[in-house]
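REQUEST ID: PR-0412
SUBMITTED BY: lab tech R.K.
PRIORITY: routine
TASK: structure prediction, single protein chain
INPUT:
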Amino acid sequence: MRQRLNETPGRHIESGKAKIAALDLLDEVSASNTIAFANEFFDALAVEILSAKGSLRIDTRDARFVETWAKPSPPELEFLDLYSIHPEPHERIEAPLAAQHSMDQIAASIQRGFLIAIDYGYTREEQLAGRHRGTLKALRQHSVSANPYEAPGEQDITADVNFTALAAAAEKHGMRTHKLITQSQFLMGIGEANQFADAFEECRLPQERAKVALQLKHLVTPAGMGESFNVLIASKGVQQERIESLSGLNFGRDIPGR
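STATUS: complete
OUTPUT:
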């Protein structure tokens, strides 16, 4: 799966280790007219795991991974206080401090423009309602596993994104966050004028058109990724009337808890 953090002429950042290196490109971002596009970027960054036992540490013993627990750090506890919840007994909660740091860097680098972050995730309000509590998981060959320790190096470890925390980090650097919308709402909004007709321009055979149609269906419909992925849009230095004219931004819900 191709991932992009932000675009500069002729360059893009792909998945894997390059996701972290993508932040180096922020030094090249122009002082104006910037669009930072983070597609499944924040979910791949490391997270801290906390439980009633403390903050998780990983050690090895007899060639196996073992879990130990340390006293939570002040930043971890502050994150739970401000943007998340404290774990109940026998519960684990993520504190994505690396994602907060990355958002700090991205938002601070943008002088005029937009940040568009597409990911699966939640708001603090949803956590308070009992959802998205302990979301760390591993993906391998299109299968989901709750065990991040098996098959090391052969599976992707991921956690849902805390949009309440990301929005707060963006606002700290002068960005204005807009209502959280689903991927379906976002794509239908930007494709409203031509219903994605341009996606079929290079199709020469009926089979090619059918393939593209299935791909669009997977991206947009609730049965696919349309409702499971959310889109966080933040702007800085853009006139309010211009923002309000953007199709699709009338959808969505406010991000409470900040």
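NOTES: The chain has eight helices and 14 strands.
REVIEWED BY: pending
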